[in-house]
Specification:
The complex is a heterodimer of chains A (51) and B (242). Chain A has 51 residues and is mainly α. Helices cover 82% and strands 0% of the residues of chain A. Chain B has 6 helices and no strands. The longest helix of chain B is centred in the C-terminal third of the chain and has 44 residues, at 198-241. The mean pLDDT of chain B is 90. Classes of the chains: A mainly alpha (51), B mainly alpha (242).
Chain lengths: 51, 242
């Protein structure tokens, strides 16, 4: 760990919050993508069954 | 082969399925290498101390906040002129990515500004235009959600995107237009005298590449999601009529 001196709080909070925001963005993106894929598969299966 | 072929949703999905693993992999690699290099292996600045390490988040996110809006502008213009649904959906898909980039730029800017300027916030031209850009992003997302008919939503959000482009440009060039305020000029410049020192420059370039690649991966993936949601709604509507 580098010595961040008196600015440690500022630097660490910048990295912490930014990493969290990016991680949440990726997680929500992947979750929404999976849900959309599943919903489309269900509707396509239903429409094939119903002709 | 023409670029317009990828306006076909099936072709777009096939292409994105092929290239997405590459973009995800490169984005993660560049971000890990760039941020670890910048955080652990670069020296403190003689004036700014260790706060200079915030540059590896602040500059790439600010760049992407503006570039995401520019990408949305291009996609919106394509929708308005050629009526390709994929381009309208790509603009919609990019907005939440842009809003997160803007939020990171504003947050890291405030955190950096406090010890350097003695204040978290100032009504400086660049900061203010960035805040307005953030509000435009929120308005753009809200407008998409508020309008039920997707084509009308795409039309109106495209017009909003054109108007907001003024602030995207102002965010980039505000420092040059108004020679006042706390914010410094561009960190990256073709003029070697104005550029940041090489020891900070190379890891910064790696971080910028990481943010660009992450943006591309997220927008490709999210556009695919929007295409699937649109197809699902169309099939459900057909079921409802049957």
């Amino acid at each position: 760990m580098p010595d961040l001196g008196k600015y440690a709080d500022a630097v660490l909070s910048a990295y912490g919050v930014s990493s969290l925001l990016l991680l949440l963005l990726v997680i929500f993106t992947l979750r929404k993508g999976r849900a959309a894929r599943q919903a489309l598969e269900d509707v396509e299966k239903r429409s094939k069954t119903n002709g | 082969m023409s670029l317009w072929e990828y306006a076909n949703p099936v072709r777009f999905l096939n292409l994105s399925a092929r290239v997405l693993p590459v973009f995800w992999g490169l984005a993660v690699a560049c971000l890990i290498v760039g941020l670890i290099w910048g955080f652990f292996f670069t020296p403190d600045d003689f004036r700014q101390g260790s706060t200079v390490k915030i540059i590896y988040l602040h500059v790439p996110s600010a760049m992407m906040a503006i570039n995401a809006w520019v990408m949305m502008l291009v996609a919106s213009l394509i929708w308005l002129v050629r009526r390709h649904h994929v381009s309208a959906l790509a603009a919609k898909a990019a907005a939440p990515v842009g809003v997160v980039m803007t939020l990171i730029a504003l947050f890291t800017g405030a955190i950096w500004g406090q010890p350097m300027w003695g204040t978290w916030w100032a009504w400086d031209p660049r900061l203010t235009s960035f805040l307005i850009l953030f509000l435009f992003y929120l308005g753009y997302i809200a407008l998409w959600e508020a309008i039920e008919d997707p084509d009308t939503a795409a039309d109106l959000t495209s017009v909003l995107c054109l108007v907001g482009s003024v602030f995207a440009v102002l965010s980039r060039y505000a420092v040059n237009f108004w020679n006042q305020g706390l914010h410094q000029g561009a960190s990256l410049s073709l003029d070697k005298e104005e550029n940041v020192a090489d020891v900070f420059y190379i890891p910064l370039l790696v971080c910028i590449a990481g943010f660009v690649l992450l943006f591309i991966a997220l927008v490709l993936y999210r556009t695919g999601t929007e295409i699937r949601l649109r197809r699902t709604r169309a099939l459900q509507a057909r079921e409802g009529r049957a």
